[in-house]
Amino acid sequence: MKQRIYLIKHFLLFAFFLIKSLHSFGQTSFVKGYFIGNDNSRVECYIKNQDWKYNPTEFEFKPHADSPTQKGTLAETIEFCIPGKLKYTRADVKIDRSPMEVSILSAKSSPEWSQEQLFLKVLLEGDASLYYYEDRLINRFFYSVQGSALEQLVYKEYLVEGGYVARNNSFRQQLLNNVHCIGSYAVETDRVYYQKQSMILYFTTYNQCKGGTFTDYAPENKDSFHLRITPGINLASLTVFNSVGNEGTARFSTQATARLGLETEYILPFNNHKWAVLFEPAFQYFHANSRNQQEAVSVHFNSIEFPLGLRYCFFLDKDLKVFLNTCYIPSYGLQFNSTITIEKPFATPRKIKTRSSFAFGAGIAYKKLSAETRYYTASEIMSDYISWSSEYKRVSLILGFKIL
Length: 404
Prior knowledge:
By secondary structure, the chain is mainly beta. It is 12% helix and 51% strand.
């Protein structure tokens, strides 16, 4: 018990240190860039790179690295840019606001236009330029050829008789009419899809075909998936309660046991790759003996659990980061006929079946290595029995080695 309390204390202290340090970590997100104001003057500054998932209406900047933070707004800014990373340009455009969710699709095949002023994300800039807009409801592509006014590429899903979904693929005709090059680099328009990678490839090949120079502002390719082996040590304890009869309560003292997991991490493609989704099948066990008021009690618990979680990272430099995890552990783990047995004549072993629980962790990673302290909420492992209840508690120290 003392070991578990000691580890919990240090986990909480570590988490507190991380939270207190957020401000200093956040300072590294201001990157040298510039913006252009309404008077067409270019202002060199430091811009907070938030790697926006949804197109912003404002941005934060500092005139100098140690200056107070200021805000640039849509009304006051023609464009802002972090060279080699991102660029947003202000545009007055017609945008189709037709809903994209299947449950509320329109029955009209034609776009439902709205005249708006927006910050559009520049994906590729050249003889033919490609722009992007996304909010919580829609995503749209825009284009311009040789400095022409920006125009939306039209794609719309709509409902037809019988409840079927049809598609207006007018963007392909727009590309064929206005952004089409016959040559060795040409890509046929009927092979283009209304997706970032497909659009970027098409506009890249068009500019190559035309022989012009262009700038690619699309996010750099980063490894989206990581695979780690995650061995570790559990400090675990168990208490079993019986509310009927004279079997009473059995307490199993804290013990150190091994655990082994295989963590899959998927890096989400926004907010500077700070967020990730985790899936970590892990084997763990707890074997122990104790006594209730009258009899000896033994537990033989082996399981593979399947935590699903979310990770947030704070990058200290290119190879070093600290992270916070939160995980949901569903009840459908593999129990391998695990049992709790009351040692008395004719006793039937009681099968262990877990309920869902949660876990919270904090750790540090350097290149391929990582270390994490993880605290689990108390778990019920005798969910099939009305008169029985239990508290299975754990704190884990987990090491990781990236193999992919």
